[in-house]
């Protein structure tokens, strides 16, 4: 069994090398239909198996086509890895689609939508609360200051704020 540090170093090396292989060495047109990026590589403790998680940008049809191309190129990728890396045994490679980026993007869009829906409510509540606060404050200040100063402060405080 390799140490955790060794496993993470091998995973990082596999990620880098497979990225280069996908860019320059794979001739299958199906791999190029969707924009492919490697999100993570999970290597087993004995360094015999590597799960390569890929994110594919494009339509559902392009994703399926790209995954089919990646699965058919698995042996090619493994042989290139064996040539480029100095390991006793080249790990078995499995490509898995990672949709976490897509799910994260959907969550962010939903959160932004909720924030936009709540913003008008918060603005109207803030305006009414601000008006009540200024009236209370001007009343307290008016008791302590001369009438001329109180009138000027009241005019400035009650003017609408400009964005």
CATH architecture of the largest domain: 2-Layer Sandwich
Would you tell me which CATH topology of the largest domain applies?
GMP Synthetase, Chain A, domain 3
Spatial strand arrangement across the major sheet: 1-2-3
- Look at the structure and give the mean pLDDT: 80
Rg (C-alpha, Å) = 31 Å
* Count of domains: 2
Order of helices and strands: HEEHHEHH
- Determine the fraction of residues in helical runs and give it as a percent range: 55-70%
Question: How many helix segments?
Answer: 5
The CATH class of the largest domain turns out to be Alpha Beta
Count of beta strands: 3
What are the segments in which pLDDT stays under 50 over at least 5 consecutive residues? Answer: none
Anisotropy-based shape: flat
The CATH homologous superfamily name of the largest domain equals: K homology (KH) domain
Distance linking N and C termini: 63 Å
The share of residues in extended strands comes to 5-15%
- The helix-and-strand class reads alpha+beta
Note the main sheet: 3 strands, mixed
